[in-house]
Amino acid sequence: MQAINGVKKTLMYGAFLAIIVLWLFLRDIRSTFIIAIAIPVSVIATFMLMFFQKITLNVMTLSGLAIGVGMLVDSSVVVLENISRLKDKGIEKISSSISGCQEMILAIIASTITTVVVFLPIVFVSKEIRILYSGLAFTVAYSLLASLFVAISLVPMLSARLPGLNETGTRSMSEARLHSKRKALTFFKRRYRRILTGALRWRYILIAIAFGIFAAAVFLIVFKIDKEFVGTTQKQDFTIFIELPTGAKLDISDKAVNGIEEILQTIPEIKQFSSRVEKWSSKVYVKLVPLAKRTRSTKEIIDDLRTRAEDVERRYREAFIYFEEPQEVETNEIIVEIFGYDYKILNELAIAMLTRMQSIEGLVDLKIRWRKGRPEWWLKVDRQKASLYGLSVDEIANIVHAQMRGLRATLYHTRGKEVEVIARLQEKDRRTLDALRKLTLTRQDGTAVYLEQMVDFVPDIGPSKIWRKNKSRMIQISANRGRYAFGTAAEKIKKVLADMKMPKDYYFRFGENYWRMIRNQRELTFALALTIVLIYLVLASLFESYAQPFIIMITVPLAVIGVAVALKITHKTINVGMLMGAIMLGGIVVNNAIILTDYINRLRKKNIATLKSILSGSQDRFRPIMMTTCTTVLGLLPMAMDKSEQANLWSPLAITVMGGLISSTILTLFIVPSMYLVLEDIKGVIIKRYKRL
C-alpha cells in the first residue's frame, strides 16, 4: 500500500503540473478549465475499461496512469488550440468548434493510434515481462483512447457552449493583458520562423549533422551505458549470514552473532532485528525504517555494516559474513555455475575461479555456495578376508546397518495410531569408533567374527549436500555486483575467467539471471523494431503515402539522442524499464511530426507554395507542439524524480520518454520541415528527369 500511495502522489503531482503548464501557455481560465476537465473524465473512462477487462489497481497500472496523465490532454490541446485560432479570425463559436475539430481529427487519430499500436509487440516478449508491464501497457492505451474520445466530443462541446467570463458581464482578461500575451507569443513565433528560414536554407547540412549526433548517441548507448535486467528495488529489510566452518559449536556461533548484534545496535536507521542461531550457519534478519525517514539508502547501510563486520570475521577463524537483500524481480548476485562429477575437483576449480573474481575491484560478498562436508569413516571391505569367513559385501553392509541404524521389528498399535518399533544395539555399544570396530557378525556355521577383521576404516570427508542441475553435479560461485550494473559485472567476470583451463567434462556458465537479461533484451529490441514497422504502416494508411511517413518517423532517431543524454546524466542503465520506455517513445515522438506534417499538407491543398506552407504551418503549430510536449514531460517529471523503494520499476521508463521527447521536439521543429523540403526537392528532380524522357 505504501508503494501504491506513492504512485498516487506522483499521478496527482503530474496532473497538477500539466494544468499549470496549460494555464501558462493559454493564460485563460476558461480554456484551461476545458482542457483540465479532460483529465478526470479520461481517467474515469479508463477505470471503466479496466473494470470490464478485470484489471486491478496496483503499482504498475497506477504507474500507467501517471505516465499517461501528461498525454491525456495532448489531443484536447491540439483541438482547442485550433478552435481558438479560428475564433481569433472572427468565426462564430459553434462553427469554429466544429471546423476546428474536423480539421485536426486525422492528426489526433493518427497520433493516438501510433501511440497505442506500440504496445502490440508485447505479445512477443517473455511471460515475466508481460506479467510485469502488461497492466501498465493496457492502462496507457485505454487512457489515450479515452482522451481521444474526450477531445473529439467534450472539448468542442464545451468550447461552443461554455460561456466565457466576458459574456456574463465580467472581462476574462484585460485588453492590455491580452495584447501582452499575443505580443509575447508573436515574438516567439517570429523568432522561430526566422531561425527556421535559415535552417531550411542549410537543410542538407542540418540533416547530416543531426544524423551524425544520432550515430554518436547510438555508440554511447551500445558501448558506454551499463546493462541489467530490471533494476533492483530498494527494500526496508535485509539478511546477514554468519557462516562458520562445518562442525563449529553452537556457543561459538552464538558469540559471533552477538558480535553482529552489537554493531547493529549502533546503526540509527535500523528499526528492529532478530537472529536465528545454528551450529555453523546463522542468520540475522534486519528491518530498516522507511526510506523517507532516513538519509542513507539500503545499499549504503549494508556497505557500512560490511566494513564493521570485518572485525567479527577476524575474531573467528574461517568465519564469513555476507549480506543479502530480498528481491522480487532482480537480484544483486551474479552466479557462476561449475559442472562436473568429482566434488574435490569442483571445489578446486571453484577456489581458483573465486581467486580470479576477487581481483575485480568493486565486487563484494564473493563466496562458494557449497559447504565442506563433515568428517566420516569409509568402511572398505577386504573381499578375500570376507570370502574366507563366508560373508559377502552385501551381507556385511546389511548386518552393520541393522546393528547401528536398526530395522523395524514390529508395529505397536494404540487407538488410531501405529508406533514403529526399531531393534538395534544399545547406544553404549555403538557410540564410539572402537565399538564399531568390535561389532560382531555371525557366520553361517554360527561362529562370530569382529567387523575389523574384514574391514579397513578409512577417514574421509563426505559432501554436505549434492547439487544437481540438468542431471549434472554442480557448485555455484556468487558475487554481489556492488557498484556495477548487472551486465557490466558479468562482462568483467567473463573477462577474468576467459582463459580458465577446465578439465575434460568440466565446464562453467553464468546463472539463469544473466541469460534471462540477455533473452529479454533481445526480445524487447525485436519488439522495438516491430513497433517502428507498425507505426510506419499506420502512418502510410492514414496519410495514403509511402514517402510522408519517413518524414514523420525521422523523429524516432532524433529521440535516441535525448535518451542517450538522459541516461548518461541520471546514471540509469539499459534495462527492461528503459526498453519499455523506448517502445512507448516510438509512438509518442511521432505525434508532433504528425500534427506538423498534416497541417502543412492542408495548407498545400489550398494552393499555397511549398516553402510558404512549410514556414506558415510550422509557425502556426509551434504553440500546440510546445504545449503538448511540456504537459507530457512535466506529467512524467514526478515519476522520473521518484526516489521511493519501487521507483526503479518505472523511473527509467519516465526518464527515457522525457529525454527522447525533449530532444525530438526541439529537433522536430527544424528537421521535419527540412526533411519535408528535401523530399520535395527529390520529387522535383525525379519529375524533371521523367519529363525529359
Provide an overview of this structure.
- With 693 residues, this protein is α+β, with helices and mostly antiparallel strands.
- Helix content is 60%, strand content 13%.
- The protein is built from 24 helices and 15 strands.
- The chain has helices at residues 2-26, 29-36, 38-52, 59-68, 74-88, 93-117, 127-161, 175-201, 203-224, 250-264, 298-315, 343-357, 383-388, 393-404, 433-437, 486-496, 512-543, 548-553, 555-570, 576-588, 590-605, 610-620, 622-640, 651-692, and strands spanning 237-243, 270-276, 281-288, 320-324, 333-340, 364-368, 375-381, 407-414, 417-423, 440-442, 448-450, 455-461, 468-469, 472-480, 507-510.
- Strands 5, 6, 13, 14 and 15 form a 5-stranded antiparallel sheet that branches.
- β10 and β11 form a beta hairpin.
- α20 packs across α24 (651-692).
- The longest helix is centred in the C-terminal third of the chain and has 42 residues, at 651-692.
- The radius of gyration is 36 Å and the shape is elongated.
- The termini are far apart.
- The relative contact order is 0.13.
- The model is unreliable at 165-176 (pLDDT under 50).
